Every structure is written in C-alpha cells, then in structure tokens.
Amino acid sequence: MTWRLLAWSGIAVAALVPIVGGIWLFTLPAASAFRVQPPITQQEHDATLAALKPKRARPLIAIIGINDMTETTDYLMPYGILKRADIADVVTLATGPGPVTLFPVLKVEPDATIAAFDAAHPDGADYVIVPAMSRDDDPAVMQWIRRQAEQGAVIVSICAGGKVVAATGLLDGRRATTHWFYLKNWRDNHPAIRYVADRRIVVDRGVATTTGISASMPMSLTLIEAIAGREKAEAVAREIGLPGWDARHDSNAFKFTRPFALTAIRNTLAFWNREQLGLALVPGVDEVSLALVADSWSRTYRSHAATFAATAAPVTTRNGLRIYPQIVAAGWPADRLLPVVSATPPAQALDQALAGIEARYGSGTADFVAVQLEYPRGHAVR
Question: What is the pTM of this model?
C-alpha cells in the first residue's frame, strides 16, 4: 500500500511540475517594444561631465577584480577603450597575485595587485572601475574601494558591479542604476539607494553607476569626454564603431519575459546539443572585441567559446594586456571555429557575433544574449 501511495504521489508531483511551470510562464510579460527615449539635455550632460572631472591633468584609472571570477567584458571593455584613447594611465588590478579568471570566459594577467598599486600610488587613483564579481562582498575589495573613495577617486561601477559598490555603502542615499536582472534584489537589499530608470549612466557625488554590460562603452566614452573633451571622445567613438553614447536608455525594454524564459529553458534542456567553439587568440587582438565575441557566444546556453593558441604562453593584446589561451591547439575543426577577432571595431564585432548566433541558433537565442548584455539590438528588445 505504501509503495503504491508513494508511486502515485510521485506521478502527481511529476504531472504538477509542467502545470505549475506553464502557469508561471503565462504570468510573465511578453517582450517589450523598444521605445526611443528623448535626448539627454545639454544641462544634464554637462552636469555629468563636471561630476566626472579628474583630480590630475593625466588621470590614473584603476580597474579592480578578484582573481577567482570577475566579469569578462566589464573588466576588459573599459581597459581597451580607455587605453586606446591614451588620455590616462590605465592599470588592471587583482586582489591577490596571479591571473584573474574572468567569467564566462578568458583569463588575464593583471598589471598589479592592489597592495602593489597602493605602494606605488599612495594618493590613490582618479577613477576606480568596478566590474561584476562572483562575490559582492569580498573584504579586500570592500576595504580598498572605500579607501579609494576617501582619497577622492570617482568610483565607477559597470553593470552588476553596482552590487559590489552597493555593498560598500557608498550608494546609500545616492541616485544609481544597475543591470536589469539584479535590480529587484539590489533595491530590496539596499533600500537607501535612489534608483534612476531610463539612464545608462548615473553619476551622483563621486560615484557613477551603469546599466548592463554593454553600458561600459558609453561610460568609457563619457569618461574620455570628461577628461579630454568632446573631439577626442568622438574620435575614439568612430574607431570603435559607436555613433552615439549619451545616457538615454529604455529600462522597460529589459526584463524577465516569456520569450527570455522559454529560450533559457529550451536551450538548457538541449544538453545533448552543446558545442565548444574555438576562438583563435592572436597577438594584437583588440581586447574589447575579443571580450564581446567570447562573452556573447558563451551566453547562448547552447555554446561556449574557448580561446586557443599554439602554445600555453600568454598572448599580448593590442594595448598590452596578456591573455592566456584556454586550450593549446594548432587549429580547430572548421565547423566549430569562430571568425578570428583581430582589429574588428568593437561595436561591429558585437553585432557580427549576434548575427552569427542568430544564423546558428535562431533569432530567439540572439535576442536572449542581447538582453543579457542589456544591448538594444534592433529586434532584440521588441
């Protein structure tokens, strides 16, 4: 009797799972139409630039990460764009010695540890860029960010790096934003934060926050404009293929929707059909393009990008960063080989990657990746 009861109970539970799941999916909103927001007023733009002015003629910019899991694009994109501009000294840091493992892909050798940076620059940085990290409350990171803020550094969070900065207490009472996926928990855990919608960049009293991963492009260009003027920022924008970089954003277009959930479920369940795609790591590669391509292809839930090179030695990028190949191989099967990323302009590299994902896995998966990046890619937000 007992075993029959258990058997029927199991069947009942198994039958309820898809029913409950179906009801949950039905409650989710459909994908939102993208709405073009009004332009940012000149007054607001000027106020943002004024709030980002550095304390030195040639500023010092530090990008902080923890060795075990810092977000790939958050860490590499500001570095590549700001180094390309050559209007500041830019250094990548880690909390401890050794390489920084980036997620979902790549491993890099930072310029220094935070201890070495402090010894070389006792007066601190002009700007501290904070990517998303696997731990929001790493004690070494918390203490270091607070100390840099006390010394007058502007703290700049990229994407979910806003969770890290929030954990320091620096966002309490300030206007701020962050990646759409973490927004509810972020606000629940830090009710003193004054959330600002429909802005990619929000600056308030020495702390700048941004929305999704792709927001580090306009954030980096805004920093360049604050440091070196509009003409220089426009020149760099042309190089990276970004026609505009103001702070306007449609926050409502990015949320957990039925198409987003269905794509995640469908691609996760297709576990037998996953593939590892090879991405050749070549000397002189643009860090931003590499990060965007590798990151995009590793967010499909169908594929994972792996960098490869003929030796295990780190490869030096366009702006001097050393990246370790994940796999030592002379080549890769042609049907699973991604196009080589060399000097492709970053914005173009991202659009090409999303087009490749659409061709391989369909438009739903390309939209799914774009929404994760909080990137307003045409139909990605319709």
Answer: 0.91
Whole-Å CA distances, 350 to 105, 112, 129, 289 = 16, 29, 22, 7
pLDDT at res. 2: 41
CA distances to 120, 147, 216, 293, 346 from 131, in Å: 23, 17, 10, 18, 18
CA distances from 92 to 79, 217, 248 (A): 8, 17, 29
d(CA 341, CA 346): 10
- Of residues 13 and 277, more confidence is placed in 277
Q: Residue 305 CB: number of other CB atoms within 10 A?
A: 23
Question: What are the structure tokens assigned to 31, written together?
Answer: 């994908």
| Percent share of the chain, pLDDT over 70 | 91
Average pLDDT, integer, range 245-260: 90
**Contact indicator for 196, 176 with CB cutoff of 8 Å:** yes
pLDDT at 298 over 50: yes
Structure tokens at 91: 């250094």
Contact 127, 156 (CB under 8 A): yes
Q: 175 with 196: CB under 8 angstroms? A: yes
Rounded distance, CA 81 to CA 286, Å? 9
